[in-house]
Amino acid sequence: MPIPMILDCDPGHDDALAILLAVADPAIDLLAVATVAGNQTVAKTALNARRMLSLAGVRGVPVAAGCDHPLAGPLEIGDYVHGESGLDGPVFGEPDVPLDPRHGVELIHDTLADAAEPVTIVAIGPLTNVATLLRRHPDDRDRIREIVIMGGSTERGNHTPYAEFNIHADPEAAAEVLGSGIPTTWVGLNVSHQALVTADVLDRIAALGTPLARVCVELLTFFGSSYQQTWGFEAPPLHDPITVAYLIDPAVLTHVRVGLRIEVDGPYTRGATVADLHGRMDWEPNANVGTVLDRDRFWDLMIGAIDTLGRR
């Protein structure tokens, strides 16, 4: 049976590829997409989600714009990576997927209420929508099977020296989600930096020869230029789709269960994820933290999804 899933995202180039993977694979039943301010403003991330679903030929999945600022602190957006539109690179037409009039948090709540079984939330942007859902509708905890999160790192950060962007954007929300008691699995930079979009990967996508494949190459080429300019990467890491790939094929990701904390106060480390990998802190294990990616399995799933959608 397909896994019922809600995608909470902030497209964003890597979010865009996560959307494609979620709608292409029969192991996933994508029920709804909520967007949040992060890689761009919430209006732009909602537009970008609609663009990608339109491009994929998917019409029946509702998309709603959620929270436009973090629980605390100012909004910071990732335009230095994703550009003015949030999906710079290709030229998009007007999407034919409508914007749902509900707030994104209420779309998540209604979708959970209507589901016949507990739903997995895949959260690949700042965790503001999910934390707000749990504040407004605490009983929804019982309707969530698991939250799979792209966020954090067991090593260094990217937005700041020790904080990954999604968690730094709203560390209070991340801490509330972590403390909610809902099972969580975290895919951090230490994992996603094993999913580099190398030249051979771009060649495999380009060789598919479909209009969708060409758009994906354009997206990843722009994304790669941003990474090279900002961090000196020769090839960019494709962060977000790993979360969806893990649901499709759990063998994609090796993870360990450890004590995890979110730093909210440190003047230099705010937004850092502190994973007690070696059991030094006497913390009760409270999260699954990813450590190793099966790169070949991941890219076979991702490129296979682009191929499947491009030939529909």
UniProtKB/TrEMBL annotation:
<feature type="domain" description="Inosine/uridine-preferring nucleoside hydrolase">
    <location>
        <begin position="5"/>
        <end position="300"/>
    </location>
</feature>
<dbReference type="GO" id="GO:0005829">
    <property type="term" value="C:cytosol"/>
</dbReference>
<dbReference type="InterPro" id="IPR036452">
    <property type="entry name" value="Ribo_hydro-like"/>
</dbReference>
<dbReference type="InterPro" id="IPR023186">
    <property type="entry name" value="IUNH"/>
</dbReference>
<keyword id="KW-0326">Glycosidase</keyword>
<protein>
    <submittedName>
        <fullName>Purine nucleosidase/pyrimidine-specific ribonucleoside hydrolase</fullName>
        <ecNumber>3.2.-.-</ecNumber>
        <ecNumber>3.2.2.1</ecNumber>
    </submittedName>
</protein>
<keyword id="KW-0378">Hydrolase</keyword>
<dbReference type="InterPro" id="IPR001910">
    <property type="entry name" value="Inosine/uridine_hydrolase_dom"/>
</dbReference>
<dbReference type="GO" id="GO:0008477">
    <property type="term" value="F:purine nucleosidase activity"/>
</dbReference>
<dbReference type="GO" id="GO:0006152">
    <property type="term" value="P:purine nucleoside catabolic process"/>
</dbReference>
<dbReference type="Pfam" id="PF01156">
    <property type="entry name" value="IU_nuc_hydro"/>
</dbReference>
